[in-house]
Amino acid sequence: MRRLTVIYDTPKQEDLIRQGDIFCGLPRIDIALSSLDVIDKDFNVQQRSWMEIAQANEHVTAVVGLRPVTAIVITQNCDALRTRDISLCEIRSFRDVEGKAKDTKTVGGWVSIITQQARLNLKWFYLPPDDRLGFNCQMAVDMFTTLRVSRADLEQHRSLRKGRLNSEAEAHFRERIADFFRRYAYNEWYALSREEYLHYSVKYPDAQPYSWQR
Predict the structure, then answer these.
(1) Strand pairing class (36-39; 61-63)
(2) 8 A C-beta contact, residue 37 and residue 61
(3) In whole angstroms, what is the distance from residue 12 CA to residue 42 CA?
(4) DSSP alpha helix (H) spans, 24-166
(5) What DSSP designation does 16 have?
(6) Exposed, middle or buried: residue 46 (CB in 10 Å: 0-12, 13-18, 19+)?
(7) Which domains, from first to last, does the chain contain?
(8) What contacts 24+ positions apart, CB below 8 Å, involve 197-202?
């Protein structure tokens, strides 16, 4: 059974790239700065650290890992017309992006997360399933995971664009991007007394105490 929703549009091949466009199969680079496989002038591969390369101000050729990912354009429409690079955020399974959804199974549970948590949590943007985009489960834009692609390259590979947000979802997405990048990040427990912090740390053991809470 095909699962289709109404928040996605299907752009024409010739349509300009805009914010909210969804591309499938874009390359994401995975590297380890501590150990890079660098190819020298004789085509030999040597393992070197990025610190060494950067301090020497070298231009090197290296072997890096690439994997295809699905991503959504976050660059503003006016910039997407002329900027050198387009910025995108990776799209992944909602269960992988939001820990609260890991064990969600009921319709009521999903409704609660999609509506209530969407107002509280700025790190993701919810995307419903849609077979046309290959979304066979609840998905989410991970605001923390960005990638950059040359605008010229992306324009030449518009066949990888499988859909875009409709006007309602695109307007919401635009505000979520703005809210995420202008938010003031802080540790919510900093103002707690020692007694309050101890109570808080039972539920959130990773919260490190401040000096006045020790």
Answers:
(1) antiparallel
(2) no
(3) 46
(4) 50-55, 77-80, 94-97, 107-112, 118-120, 151-156
(5) P
(6) exposed
(7) 8-183 (2.30.30.110), 188-214 (no CATH)
(8) none
Arithmetic mean of pLDDT over the chain: 90
Residue 183 in 3-state DSSP? coil
Q: Length of the chain in residues, anyone?
A: 214
DSSP tag of 123: S
Instruction: Give the tokens for residue 178.
Output: 């703005």
193-213 core/surface letters (b: 16 or more CB in 10 A; e: else): eeeebeebbeeeeebeeeeeb
Question: Is 70 exceeded by the pLDDT of residue 65?
Answer: yes
Indicate the SS3 state at residue 175. Answer: helix
Q: How wide is the angle at C-alpha 60 spanned by C-alphas 58 and 64, nearest 5°?
A: 135
- Taking the C-alpha atoms of residue 154 and residue 137, their distance in angstroms, rounded to an integer, is 26
Per the CB < 8 A criterion, the answer to whether 212 and 189 are in contact is no
pLDDT digits (tens, 9 = 90+) for 79-124: 999 999 999 999 999 989 888 777 777 788 778 777 876 777 889 9
Through-space distance between the first and last CA atoms of the chain, rounded to whole angstroms: 57
| Token pair recorded at residue 46 | 């040597």
| Residue 58 pLDDT | 86
pTM: 0.84
Pick the more confident residue, 21 or 107.
21
- Residues ≥6 apart with Cβ < 8 Å to 182: none
> In Å, what is the CA distance from 205 to each residue of 133, 170, 176, 179, 213?
39, 37, 29, 27, 14
